[in-house]
Queue: 2 jobs
Job 1
Amino acid sequence: MSNNILSVNSLTKSFGGLEAVNVENFQINSNEITSLIGPNGAGKTTFFDLITRFQDADSGSIFFKNKNVSKTNSYMLARLGMVRTFQLTRVFDRMTVYENMQFAGSSIKNEGFLNSLFNKTSLRKDEGNLIEKIDDTLKMLNLYEMRNAYARELSGGQKKLLELGRSLMKDPEILLLDEPLAGVNPKLADNILEIITNLNAKGINILMVEHNINAVMKISDRVVVMAEGKIISDGKPDFVRSDKKVIEAYLGSSDE
Amino acid sequence: MNKYITASLLLLGCIAYIFLSNDTGSARVFVNLITFAGVYGLAAIGINVHFGWTGLLNFGHAAFMGIGAYTTVLLIPHSLGREGVIISTGLPLPIAIIFGLIASALLGLLLGLPTLRLRGDYLAIVTIAAAEIFRLLVRDFENLTGGVYGIIQFSDSLQVYRPNFVDVISTKYDVSSAQLWVAILTWISIVLVIIILSRLQKSPWGRALRAVREDEDAVRALGKNAVWLKLQSFMLGAAIGGLSGIFLVFNYGTVQASTFVPVLTFYIWAALILGGVGSLGGPALGAIIFWVIIAGTDSISRLLFESPDGQQLAGVRFVIVGLLIMLFMIFRPSGILGKKEELLLDVK
């Protein structure tokens, strides 16, 4: 078997006449940080949505861990180990930071109606087992002091961290981050980059969409460039940086 | 703790008002009022599960109340309105009630399956429409439901269980023993439902519903089946609505198509908003206050009109309830018992 965890074949999606995504072939190799860049409207987020099954593709197939997941529900995909975040941060505003984490970590069985109504002892045990993991994750993200605050009271950057922390409660095999640095101050951005690198060192595959080119070039093992729905370049950061097509489409205007 | 003091004072004020404003038969007014308040409160608790917990906009609660009530009544001995067809056999009431609750939950499932996959507003539209379709079907299927003439003579199934002390009390205070019995059962049900719900609210299931209320996509991204969670919530709230509908028709002693008109749903929403969306006891408290206002409008109408007729009374009621909701929206959007930190009335 190949050593890619995720692979995509001939994935297309159109909105009316506009072809938003048309990706012939795309793989994520095990244990890499892959960044997806491209100008606005290149189809990065739509591509994300297609992979995570938040949108239905018009055609094409998606394989996750060599299993065809082209028709799998988004939440089933998350259970299989593919967890995503969102470009506009989505925390549960009117729940506390701690509850956000608890919800992410609690098992499906515990959330069953009858279990919640009747089976209290095993439930307490399971919830108790979460505490340590939640505390550790919150400490790693510097959110521990805020654990009893409502999520909406957090700053934008902290919300990003909470969303990341929530995803980590799922023990993902691949983490898809949609602009993890957007709207985050430079210091916190460095912090987040460090966390991402550490997660990758622990064996979590990362695929992220990000506009901060310097950050992307710094931490990525591989950079994929999209323009007008297609992948126009794919390789190590240095290769992509000097790729003529990329400079034309994207980097040329900002870097040169 | 402040809001609980407010709530207690309001309750005391309400009771005092009833007994001070009615020279004769105040006990009778009181029992009538707490019966309706109980029924509306129970119904509002159902909507609270939908809206306060899960963020589902249900504007067709009357249909859930109605189908629970009709299913129960049709399964016990009853007579059909105009022809007076007497059906003297039937299931024991407790079993009929269970079927009634199941019917309400199933209607919830039926409405929820196609709509809960869509955005929230669609559910609001579908529930309004479904409630009207239900009412019109009930009106037109006269052979089954008695249509506009309704169903009568089913109360005995409940009243045979009436314990002796209820009769003793009702004789002493000159109130209707049948109604007092319905009131007692309704409020016992409210307490039981609140106990069950408080358990659920603190549980992982309740937490999951709140997460759905906050952000469905994030719920899906975390591997949880948001549609299934919404369906469960919808069915639970529908069943609670069904229970309140059953008590409503036992309070009337009859049931017609016109019992479950759309305005019933909106009165229940009013009670929920007054009491506090998202809180456990709020809906019941809101229902009491709502009914005291309804009773109080009579005396206010007498100030405005020499001898108010039904239409004028209804007009004044709408004005006062509407005004009160507006004032609440401005000064206390969380209702009397709602948590300020969890202001739940800002629909996305």
Job 2
Amino acid sequence: MKELLMGNHAVALGALKAGMTFFAGYPITPASEIMHFLANKGIEFVHTEDEIAAANMIVGSSLSGRKSMTSTSGPGMSLMQEAIGLGHMMEVPMVIVNVQRVGPSTGMPTLPAQGDILQAKHGSHGDYTQIVFYPNSVEECYRYAIEAFNASEESRSPVIFLMDGFVGHLMETVDLDAIPCAIVPRTIPGLGGGNRHFTGLLSKNGIPCTMNSDYYREWFQKMKSKATSVSDRYNFFEYLRGDDAKTLIIAFGIVSRVVLPLIGKYSLFRPIRMFPVLEKELKEIASGYERIIVVEMNDGQYKGEIERVLKRDVEGISLIGGDLDPTVVGEKIEGLSNGKLESYPTEAR
Amino acid sequence: MANWKVTLLRPDEEHGFSSFQDGVFLLFFFPGWWFLMSYKDYIKWERMPSTWCPGCGIGIVLKYAAMAIDELKIPKEDVVVVSGIGCSGRSAGYFDVESLHGLHGRALAMAEGVKRGNRKLKVVVISGDGDLLGIGGNHLLHTSRRNVEMCVICINNEIYGMTGGQMSPTTKKGTVTLTSPEGSPYNPVNAQGLITSNKDHFYARSSVFHLNHLKKSIQEGISRGGFSFIEVISYCIENNGRRLGFKDAPEMLDLIRKNYKVNPSPAGKLGDLELGIVKT
């Protein structure tokens, strides 16, 4: 049945479909609708005192046997970072939804942005491999919320589900029943019955070993290869090839919808699994293009990642400030192609 | 398995002798399989000796928490011990049950997640004054307000021991520490006031000297069916006591004996130097 749905609601529905039975969260614009929607759905629902409690609570509930999720936006995401690192250390499957808004700090709460891209990858201290998804439509919010739970169960690690204020508040008609979905069941037994010790310290079989550098390296390689091999099965992306296009636009989230009218003259590569970066696919596709333009609503965060992977010059258009005008975006891309604009304009338009 | 050692000492009113409880008494007066269990089955002996300094008070709490759980006949598979960060945060790892050692200050949030995730579990939180009352103060305020069923044992040694002896939220005014070289300028946090400000509350103050009282408090706290907070007066000889001029741990323990008295039926609230249980 087709219905009119908001992106935030679709994420919540996807999570319920994936088997989530525990939600803890703290209200924040523009993510609050996820909370509102889940408050009366018969799951264990906690409106916590802050985002730190929410993130730590889902670590506990996930260990006790429930698929768990929290949702927030920039400021809350910053508070949750320590718990995300804990989730990686304890190997806890959990999903954190970040509906991005303009930062830093309280910034512009009601306006969308894509400024938390690198935070999603590197937010918590120390080294870890983070799996990140970023949909661009209401249907994808539903579909990839399920995949986020699947990936977190398989990799036994926190998965970050990025959105932006636009996608979160986007209303579209979708037929959820028609979306095919496979659901990965729980991969770890819930608490009770054993004598396992889950700790944020580096530990070997539940016994902390905090002075063993060799073991740290061994453990780190194991964790990294686990996350990489699991994420290889979730290598979602979209590639729209323009006839005779010499330029490849890389965009994600709402920006990838805004640049659509230009596709044909240009090609579009849209990563859905943002991190780990789709290196193989990107190298293969980018090799056929003379120029690459990364269009994003931040100061070139993903552009740096693309440059790192492709090891060549990449142009960027940063649409900062929270407003998104398709005509202006088009002009900027055209202008960049004609050499009229600076290759990296960061000033407000 | 069972501790067969028989002691002829009877526990007196305030100071218990552990081996009595799991010896003859249980063997003869409680029929059934349970007499084969003792508090020792709740502890991972293979991890001993513990990480704590010689003379530390935390080991006493570890033992008496295990004894309290054992005597309540809670099966091991239903117990989850959660702790935060600090010296006392390490205690979760010594329990031979499922245990969690989380982030600094967030033990209560994680414990609430565990409890709400599986209501069958009995959740015991063991952490320190810095963790629960300092960095985790906000969570204490709200977890106690939501009255989530868990027993919180707050080992209060009035110092940040693990990091070398800095002023904690419970450090008494005038005490010299690394971060208060002129003596702490602030009054300590009033844990009793904080907990008892909730309409529905359970607050107990006990000490690592008054062992029977400690065990009884923990047992009442666990079987309450709501949020219970037990402040255990402890001490830290290595990173606090020596700086204050104490020669050894027994000297600090003796000070607790001299200073604190058990009030079996407190009217309203406990006095500053009283031990007891305040509940609704």
